[in-house]
Automatic annotation (TrEMBL):
It is found in: Cell membrane. It holds the Pfam family ABC_tran. It catalyses: tungstate(in) + ATP + H2O = tungstate(out) + ADP + phosphate + H(+). Its EC number is 7.3.2.6. InterPro entries: AAA+_ATPase (IPR003593), ABC_SmlMolc_Importer (IPR050093), ABC_transporter-like_ATP-bd (IPR003439), ABC_transporter-like_CS (IPR017871), Mo/tungstate-bd_C_term_dom (IPR008995), NA-bd_OB-fold (IPR012340), P-loop_NTPase (IPR027417), Transp-assoc_OB_typ2 (IPR013611). Coiled coil: none annotated. This is Molybdate/tungstate import ATP-binding protein WtpC. SMART domains: AAA (SM00382). Belongs to the ABC transporter superfamily. Sulfate/tungstate importer (TC 3.A.1.6) family. It is an enzyme of class 7 (translocase). It comes from Natronorubrum sediminis.
Amino acid sequence: DQPRPSADAPIALELEGVSKRYGETTAVDDVSLAVREGEFFTLVGPSGCGKTTTLRSIAGFETLSGGTIRFGGTDVTGVPPEGRDVGVVFQNYALFPHMTVAENIAYGLKFADPPGGVSDDQRVTELLELIDLEGMGDREPDQLSGGQQQRVAIARALAPGPDVLLLDEPMSALDARLRERLRLQVKEIQSELGITTIYVTHDQEEALAISDRVAVMNAGAPEQVATPREIYRRPETRFVAEFIGDNNVFEGAVRSLEGERATLEVGAETLAIDLECEVETGDTITFCVRPENLQVGAGRGASSGENATTASVESAEFLGETTRVHLEWPGQELLVRTPDPLSGDVVVGFAPEDAHVVAVDRTASS
Ligand code: ATP
């Protein structure tokens, strides 16, 4: 899981201790982040966690309550948006309806010359090609699909050749299928230009699909910043474990330790998990197991039989290639994914190495 761009790529953008308060509300709480040149970096989190305010702060639309923002090592904290060399696309940053597509893109050149010494017309042609709308420059926005309109908005933001592209939920007005298509196109445009991009979304699946790195935000600050794989496989907090993808979170006390293997008491059950971190007997551990790593079988015991316990099927959602089944397990609900329909009582188990610890609490034991 090599980071892209490489770890020695220069830092394009840096936030140091950035805070933004509105009266009593702290929208952004002491955020420090560094984004590399050419990186596709996503801020993801639930509504109100401060994603948009962070992005607006980077763009220069907010006066910070504290902290510093640097572009390529230069302090831009007090610099207004037009002095920052950023292109911004907002969720409902509508195109001008009575201008053609070409005129809309050219509007991005109103206050800046195109890069590379080309004419405005040449730049518009280049951008139409980039967003795959060659020959559609004379259309008006209402003759385009929602996805095409957002690509034009991106082209308008890119017209002056900014160093950094900022995208705030650019797909949220589109239906699911269009979003999936557009996110591939956005990713393609980004990698073709190699432009440093900060992307805001509340959609965790979109964040995983599109990004080089993801910052999962909660209550004004990132809880974890890592590659999509790392975030999914090794969430560092319970919040990240539950926000990104489906997960089953367990809490239990360590009863015994043998090398990497811990035996835990989870409710009335005894479960074995493999540890990647230091724990002591008596610690309370929070760990998670992804639904795809829970094995279910009717009656005979779950595959290898490890950590096998009984549960009963509560409900099932047919999702096409899999079915997401909600199980009633002693003390909590569990989610599993299975290709087969399930009902009644089942045996559910998981391999000890598929458990991932998100928190260790020593207070109970000390
Ligand atoms: P969403 O996904 O719903 O857009 P978000 O993660 O982008 O949410 P922000 O819009 O950054 O969150 O808002 C963070 C917090 O700051 C919220 O509690 C919000 O109500 C508050 N907030 C944002 N803008 C303002 C403002 N102009 N005045 C007062 N409070 C604000």
